[in-house]
Amino acid sequence: MGKSQKPKTLLIVGGGTSGWMAATLMASRWPDINVRLLESDNIGTVGVGEGSTPHLKIFFDTLGIAESEWMPRCNATYKNGIYFSNWSSVPGFERYFHPFPAQTDDLTMPMFFKHIQARRLGRSETPHPDQYFLESYLTRNNLGPIAAECFPFNVAYGYHFDAALLGKFLAAKAEFLGVERIEGNVAQVQLNEMGEISRLRLDDSRTVQADFFIDCTGFKSLLLQDALQVPFTSYRDNLFNDAAVVLPTDAALEITPATDSTALSNGWAWRIPLRNRCGNGYVYSSAHLSADQAETELRQHLGLQDAEVSARHLQMKVGVVQQHWRHNCVAVGLAQGFIEPLEATALALTFNTIMQFIKRFEDGDFSGRYQDDFNREIGAKFSGIRDYIVCHYKVNQRTDTAYWRDNAANNALSESLQAVLHLWRHSDNFAADMRKYNLEGSYQAKSWACLLAGYGLFPALDAKASAAPDNGRGELTELAEFIRRCGLNFTNHNQLLAAHGVT
Ligand SMILES: Cc1cc2nc3c(=O)[nH]c(=O)nc-3n(C[C@H](O)[C@H](O)[C@H](O)COP(=O)(O)OP(=O)(O)OC[C@H]3O[C@@H](n4cnc5c(N)ncnc54)[C@H](O)[C@@H]3O)c2cc1C
Questions:
Q1: Residues near ligand 1 (Cβ within 6 A)
Q2: If exposure means fewest CB atoms within 10 Å of the residue's CB, which of 145, 174, 221, 437 is most exposed?
Q3: Which ligand 1 atom is at minimum distance from the Cα of 44?
Q4: Helices 17-29 and 55-63: crossing angle, nearest 10°?
């Protein structure tokens, strides 16, 4: 491909969620490029990944697809955030909620920071995050995230969805946008004399050519890592989980608008409530637990006597490529890296990668002019999210198994994560210092404070200070009343789903 020249043909390789997200976004953005997608009927998709962040809403908004169109087809539900249970053994902090952002945060968050600051000084305030945020209240009361029109504040939200159905939905959309689907197995990736990808040879001897390639082949990363030899940096030093076991259970009658993330003996289990079933999985470290033990523990955790429900076992390759875009190929999705699913960030990274690539490719007149900037930017996104996930493990206070003790003792922390933990212990103004030292890259101070306060990571109480007559209870009562009255503008989650045709 010549420099500064718009490609005539673009081939997406892989038809998982990432491949079809790339196909819809690129075909709608570049109608004059011939976008094709190659996938294999014999090689399945990873088949998990059913919780999102608010980025998935932006993805659908970008394509102009209404919730009433896609949600019923994917058995989707709303998600206000994530419950973390049993990650901390500090009394009173066995469970907390990590809410997505809301415009009301501007009103309620200052009080949160005031109270956690007081508690960090040893005063007996009330630092548990659950009472400070509207989305936590909505979730406790099974309310969906969409308010009556007269309520002037928005709350951000994500979704839970059936990954296989979402793939089918997006495939139909992409084909409607003119994307041609090719079925076949890639047997060989051929390079030209400049080291760029020139064509793919399929196992039935067909060849497929393109000017530019998007590698969405999942953990295999056939194009970027395998053919172009881009090195992969493993995160195994500070993220020990490398396997998962997955099991469905029946849908709940009352569908909670939140993911549950419960710490178990050697990892954690997710519970994702869809309209027609619950998705469950146990993410664990295979160095600490065997696959059989993990499956038995997950079944016990779910109260499942029924051996009829079969489990699926998966390996996870946790880490990131050193370059996401090289020559005429960009990797998207699991092919570029995976942090582990604790905060359900993979599709957000996928969306971000596609949108940044589109921007940088266009800004550089379809040359590789901004390739380095793009690679730096996406690399920084991965590092920022990794810090936040690693922090969950580092600050756990469980002592029941070697897994949790090994995680707490792990000192392979990035400088930025060390800086956040230092500020938490020593700063007089955590939120302001997080901004000052540019530590809010992927997660805002609110999210960091919810995690650290949610685990009860505070010094011992100062008996004298905690006996002070006014420790803020009056203003907390007012805050609770404010949040309750905000909550009157929201609808029961099941009813909201029904209103969007999800029945
Ligand atoms: C345990 C677990 C839990 C997860 N939970 C979440 C979550 O809650 N939220 C979230 O956002 N993400 C989650 N993820 C990540 C999420 O599953 C993925 O980001 C998402 O499914 C996209 O995957 P993908 O499209 O990149 O790869 P895949 O789904 O693996 O698709 C790869 C594609 O490449 C094709 N392919 C491979 N080899 C060849 C070949 N030789 N020839 C032709 N085609 C080929 C396959 O046919 C397939 O179509 C989770 C992942 C795991 C492992």
A1: 14-19, 38-40, 43, 45-46, 48-52, 163, 185-186, 216-218, 220, 222, 244, 281, 283, 314, 316, 333-335, 341, 344, 346-347, 350
A2: 437
A3: 47
A4: 40
